[in-house]
Each structure stands twice: as structure tokens, then as C-alpha cells.
Design a protein that fits this description.
The protein is mainly β and 128 residues long. It has a domain of 79 residues: Electron Transport, Fmn-binding Protein, Chain A (Pnp Oxidase, Chain A, Roll), CATH 2.30.110. Helix content is 6%, strand content 45%. The strands form 3 sheets. The protein has a 5-stranded antiparallel β-sheet, with no helix packed on it. It has a two-stranded antiparallel sheet with strand order 4-5. A hairpin with a 5-residue loop joins strand 4 and strand 5. The radius of gyration is 14 Å and the shape is globular.
Length: 128
């Protein structure tokens, strides 16, 4: 299982539903994101900065001790996520020193709560 913290994530299209994110080309996980490959997105809740840091740092098993589940295809999702997106790689194109990944969203589950937001080098809460 591979887990990553992504800081360059955006909605790309509503019809069809597409997301956009990037990953350093030198990442050991980059080769896993080929066209058609399934992947999941767990959007973290406010207060889960420690989880974001955990999945950003290299370690042997990022999921050890972290409550999670796997879909039928084996893709992992975090139990306490604010939202989850079941996706497949639509495109993975090298751009500069990153791989630009377009994901086709097949399913979404969303729950009540506030998102984890990273701004200006720290985790912050959004004002009402």
C-alpha cells in the first residue's frame, strides 16, 4: 500500500469529474500512477495535521496503527477522512520535475466536518 500527502490538489472538471495533482518525478511511487491505474483520495479533517505529516514523511509502513479500510480493488482509504474519492489515472504527464496526474473520479463519499487546510507553511482553520 502506498500513502502520500499531496499539497497540489485541485478540481479540474465537473463533467466529467476530474481532479488534478502532482507528484515529484523522483518519488519512488511515481511509477504506480500510470494511465488506468486505480487510486483513492482521503481528504483529511481539521485537526489531522499529524496524519498529513505522517504520510508526507518516508517510513516503511505509513498505514501501521492508522485506522483505514480497503475497497474491493485493494485501494486504501483513511477511516476518519472528511471525504473519499475513488479514482483512476486518466493521464500522467511529466512536466518539469513533477508528474502531473489527472484522475477520473468514479465515486465520492463526503461527511460533515471541516477540512484540513495547509496555508503559508502551517495548518490553519477556515473562518466562517
Amino acid at each position: 500500500m502506498v500513502g502520500l500527502t499531496i499539497n497540489s490538489f485541485a478540481s479540474l472538471s465537473l463533467s466529467p469529474p476530474l481532479i488534478l495533482w502532482s507528484l515529484a518525478r523522483h518519488s519512488p511511487s511515481a511509477a504506480l500512477f500510470a494511465a488506468g491505474a486505480p487510486f483513492g483520495v482521503s481528504i483529511l479533517r481539521a485537526g489531522h495535521g499529524d496524519l498529513a505529516r505522517r504520510f508526507a514523511a518516508p517510513q516503511p509502513d505509513k498505514f501501521a496503527g492508522v485506522p483505514h479500510w480497503r475497497c474491493a480493488g485493494g485501494v486504501p482509504y483513511l477511516d476518519e477522512a472528511l471525504a473519499t474519492l475513488s479514482c483512476r489515472v486518466e493521464r500522467a504527464d511529466p512536466v518539469g520535475d513533477h508528474l502531473l496526474i489527472v484522475g477520473a473520479v468514479d465515486r465520492i463519499a463526503a461527511f460533515d466536518g471541516e477540512p484540513l487546510v495547509f496555508y503559508s507553511g502551517e495548518f490553519v482553520r477556515l473562518a466562517a
